[in-house]
TrEMBL record:
It comes from Hymenobacter mucosus. This is GAF domain-containing protein. It comes from the Bacteria. Residues 33-158 form the GAF domain. GO terms for cellular component: cytosol. Coiled coil: none annotated. InterPro entries: GAF, GAF-like_dom_sf, Phosphatase_reg/MetRdx. Signal peptide: none annotated.
Length: 160
């Protein structure tokens, strides 16, 4: 198990993700506990990119319920179709939001959040969780983030 991340911050963001994803896989390899793996994944993503907030919401009883995260306190429950996380769950699709103030129905868990990306975790064709990443900067996420985080989701799904 890796105890420290090794990233070259002088390379592109896409390359940093290429360096990070195998480290997350190594960090979680052989660990059967869902909470431990989600927690370390959230911590690795936040540490690597200094995101404002990184966490998982788990589908439980027709709601998204807050799971392991890194960052300030967060909304505990989100209904299907509500906010960016609920919309990602409902659509079973990644949603990238350059300016959260422009997203209809955005749930402001923190007024410091300015942009967001939410990626669904699919298991057997069903959304079982979503990864939510927030930035305190506008337009902080792009196709590099989307592609890399989507590549991470099959590993995350394997823990469910």
């Amino acid at each position: 198990m890796a105890e420290e991340l090794h990233l070259d911050t002088t390379v592109s963001k896409a390359e940093q993700y290429r360096q990070l994803l195998p480290q997350i896989e190594a960090l979680t390899s052989g660990e059967p506990d869902l909470t431990a793996n989600l927690a370390n994944t959230a911590a690795a993503l936040r540490q690597a990119f200094n995101f404002f907030w990184v966490g998982f919401y788990l589908v439980k009883n027709e709601e998204l319920v807050l799971g392991p995260f890194q960052g300030p306190i967060a909304c505990t429950r989100i209904r299907r179709g509500k906010g960016v996380c609920g919309a990602s769950w409902e659509q079973a699709a990644t949603i990238l939001v350059p300016d959260v103030e422009q997203f209809p129905g955005h749930i402001a868990c923190s007024s410091d959040s300015k942009s967001e990306i939410v990626v669904p975790v699919l298991k057997d064709g069903q959304v079982v969780a979503v990864l939510d990443v927030d930035s305190d900067q506008l337009n902080d996420f792009d196709s590099d983030d989307q592609q890399a985080l989507e590549r991470l989701m099959p590993l995350v799904a394997s823990w469910f």
